[in-house]
UniProtKB/TrEMBL annotation:
Keywords: DNA-binding, Transcription, Transcription regulation. It comes from Aliikangiella coralliicola. Residues 2-59 form the HTH lysR-type domain. The lineage of its organism: Bacteria, Pseudomonadati, Pseudomonadota, Gammaproteobacteria, Oceanospirillales. PANTHER family: HTH-TYPE TRANSCRIPTIONAL REGULATOR, TRANSCRIPTIONAL REGULATORY PROTEIN. GO terms for molecular function: DNA-binding transcription factor activity; sequence-specific DNA binding. This is LysR family transcriptional regulator. Belongs to the LysR transcriptional regulatory family. It holds the Pfam family LysR_substrate. GO terms for biological process: DNA-templated transcription. It comes from the Bacteria.
């Protein structure tokens, strides 16, 4: 099998005429050039150059080969140029469905870099709580907080979420007298963190959205268990130094199992995974402001 790298040595030597000059162009020793030419000749089963006192002179076989290899060089160069311009060549619609708080706190502040890099991609953000968009295949990608994504979706868990208990300054000042907590509507009984740390607490309000829970906590309505990337980016909240264990919820980048992965979808998926990874310390609560 012919080695393309050997053909590059052949091209340069045919143009320069001596192994020393070819070595300087290629950035290698002249003996390396001679060795690669010899390997090519053995591979082709024919002599390509006559060694003379003045250098290397092409044989008829080499002259016949030169046109073919020059054409190959031009095609390889064209591929390289197209690959270099691939980013700007990606074009078309791309629908990304994201949960509200993931979008507002983690994705939207940095999505401009992707849009700038791929100006011909029509980025469309769909803010939803559920995965109905992917079920109907109306979106290309989804970013979700979930313990287990549905079987009809495939993707990658970027990392586990970290949760903490958060409170406003006013709530902290009265925490020894009158503890109130904010729960989800689905939490019909006291969750474990309340039973362990605030068993006498009263429920002040129930919500159906984690962003609303963070705002309610910052407004002094009560303590709330929040993902750290929400609690630590919500003005007016402080994290309590209470151990509530690890979470089985993770941040996932997902797509429908039947969806064909286009180049633009793959580019976006890789960008999102890198973006989320860059926010690991925030997502895992390593920079929390403790009360």
């Amino acid at each position: 099998m012919i080695n393309w790298n050997d053909l590059k040595y052949f091209l340069v030597l045919s143009r320069e005429g001596t192994v020393s000059a070819a070595g300087r162009v290629l950035g290698v020793k002249h003996m390396t050039v001679a060795r690669r030419i010899q390997a090519l000749e053995q591979s082709l089963g024919t002599r390509l150059f006559d060694r003379t006192r003045n250098g290397y002179s092409m044989t008829q076989a080499a002259e016949n080969l030169l046109d073919l290899v020059t054409s190959m060089e031009e095609k390889v160069g064209s591929i390289d140029r197209q690959a270099a311009n691939l980013d700007s060549a990606l074009a078309g619609p791309l629908k990304l469905t994201v949960a509200f708080e993931l979008a507002n706190r983690l994705i939207i502040p940095d999505i401009g870099e992707f849009c700038h890099r791929f100006p011909n991609i029509d980025m469309q953000l769909l803010m939803t709580k559920d995965l109905v968009d992917l079920v109907a295949m109306e979106a290309d990608l989804a970013i979700r907080m979930t313990p287990n994504p549905p079987e009809y979706l495939v993707g990658r868990e970027i990392m586990k979420l970290r949760h903490g208990i958060y409170a406003s300054q006013s709530m902290l000042e009265n925490i020894s007298k009158n503890v109130k907590v904010i729960l989800f509507q689905s939490e019909v009984s006291s969750p474990q963190w309340v039973k362990e740390h605030f068993k006498n607490a009263k429920v002040s309000v129930r919500v159906d959205d984690v962003g609303s829970m963070a705002v309610a906590a910052a407004s002094g309505l009560g303590l709330a268990k929040l993902p750290c990337f929400i609690g630590d980016t919500q003005p007016g909240l402080f994290r309590l130094d209470r151990d509530i264990g690890t979470s089985n919820w993770g941040v996932w980048v997902l797509n429908h199992v039947d969806l064909r992965a286009t180049a633009r979808v793959r580019a976006c998926k890789e960008y999102l995974m890198g973006l989320l990874e860059s926010k690991r310390s925030l997502i895992q609560g390593e920079n929390s402001r403790y009360a």
